[in-house]
Amino acid sequence: EPRSPWCCLAWTLVIATMNSLVFLLNLLLMFVIFTVVLLPTIVVVYFGFQCHSQVLHSSARYCKSILDDNSSSALIILGFVIMSPLLVVAMAIYCSLARRLQLLVCFQPYTLALYKGGRWCRRGEGALCCARGCNTQLKAWV
């Protein structure tokens, strides 16, 4: 049965807050994974740009003794070349973790705010955010 207007508004705010938290959790997980996986690229490109005489030309000892303009250019090119495979690896790691933790199942539909008696679960009981005891035989499209 439909909820009252105030109850519907309250449930809409609860569901919107929960969906926002799940979105922020996904975003944080993605940021951490991409930062860790792309760290070699970030370091190589940073040192390449830092020691190149046309860009920053640092006065650090390693820039004067080890890296000249040619080696700095090589570091910059190497960093951008290894970025593509590392992006694929980072996305594969994120997708496998999101699938294993079932984070994308945690988004709740707004129809729970409109009607009473809805369950906090869809598709299986294994999700971290779903309530136990859901009837997995019910299909939304039937």
What's the layout of helices and strands?
Elements (H helix, E strand, L loop, with lengths): L4 H33 L1 H13 L9 H5 L3 H33 L9 H4 L28
Helix pairs in contact: 1-4, 2-4
Question: What does this protein look like?
Answer:
Mean pLDDT is 80; it is low at 125-142. This protein starts with a helix and ends in a 28-residue tail after the last helix. Helix 1 packs across helix 4 and helix 2 packs antiparallel against helix 4 (69-101). By secondary structure, the protein is an all-alpha fold. The protein is elongated, with a radius of gyration of 24 Å. It has a domain at 25-52 and 59-106. The protein has 5 helices and no strands.
Question: Which descriptors would you attach to this protein?
Answer:
mainly alpha; 142 residues; transmembrane; disordered C terminus; 62% helix
pLDDT below 50 for ≥5 consecutive residues: which ranges? Answer: 125-142
What's the mean pLDDT score?
80
- Strand % is under 5%
Query: The biggest beta sheet, please?
Result: none
- SSE sequence, one letter per element: HHHHH
- Number of E-state strands: 0
Overall morphology: elongated
Helical amount = 55-70%
Whole-angstrom Rg: 24 Å
Structural class call reads mainly alpha
Give a summary of the structure in a few sentences.
This protein has 142 residues and is mainly alpha-helical. The chain is built from five helices and no strands. It has a domain at 25-52 and 59-106.
